[in-house]
Fold this sequence. Notes:
It comes from Notoacmeibacter marinus. Residues 24-274 form the EAL domain. This is GGDEF-domain containing protein. By secondary structure, the chain is an alpha/beta fold. It is 45% helix and 17% strand. The chain is built from twelve helices and nine strands. The protein is globular and about 50 Å long.
Amino acid sequence: QVKGRPGGSFEVFHPWFLSDVEQAANAEQQLRDAIRNETIQPYYQPLVELENGRVAGCEALARWFREDGTQVPPAIFIPLAEKIGMIDELFENLLRRACLDAKGWDERVTLSFNLSAQQLNNVSLPYRVASILGETGFKPGRLELEITESTFVQNAEIALDTIAQLKALGVRIALDDFGTGYSSLSQLAKLKIDRVKIDRSFVMQCMADERSMSVVQAIVQLSRTLQLATTAEGIEGSDQYLELQKAGCDIGQGYLFSKALSSLDFQVWLDNFTEPKRGEGTLAATG
Ligand code: C2E
Ligand code: MG
Ligand code: MG
Ligand code: MG
């Protein structure tokens, strides 16, 4: 890393001239501004019923497009927003906008929203969710909040209590990225969740080897026994679609259907989405 040039001063500002500390401070300031100015927006990825190819809902995914045309992935800015103490503000902005967007769509289209571990350890979360639902008039039954197993590593008691309060609002809870954390099976029995989202890594592997396919089938069957719905993440090919449909998985999500779209594009996608005819194995999506 270049930290400076002997004897010279810089004529042009380039981030790579900055020290790691300066770069980090710079990134944090940019994120602060982006959250304050509500530059970060929700995009929507369709969720499709595997049995009949109908649209079930969408998952809101945060997107940050910078003025220079670059995009910062949520895997980078979500942890950073937690670090600088702005995750709650970001979440509220995004959820409010998503509820308003989703109100314009068909009533049956549900909205899934991610919660980070830190948010579930904040006792005020259920009040804030309730107030956004009240303010926007969005029906709690259409909202599903996604949590991950990492949530329960830090302070399981608060998180469990927060989940119970969210559920009391009529909001549903899904366990995201299932299979990637540890203690997965014990969580399933303990948690009052409604859905299990099978991680993309399993969906990817399951076509390549039979053992992974068996794991996916076992997760679906176990979920059914516990009366939990299942969603498979990261379906990219029609072969994966058919395998997961055969395994009895309820809902699919992935590039086969669509990537995450802006509110406007998602509306267009919904209008153009054609349900497959009865008996047809594959799904015909346009747009
Ligand atoms: P996630 O909740 O598991 O979201 C699914 C991720 O998989 C998304 O990545 C999505 O774009 C990607 N994906 C979906 N289908 C496919 C596929 O067929 N192939 C491939 N390769 N990828 C697919 P994204 O948007 O980059 O988000 C990454 C993670 O960042 C999310 O994982 C979630 O944990 C977090 N995240 C995103 N938005 C938010 C948010 O608003 N709040 C919080 N707390 N976390 C968020
Ligand atoms: Mg998710
Ligand atoms: Mg996920
Ligand atoms: Mg995932």
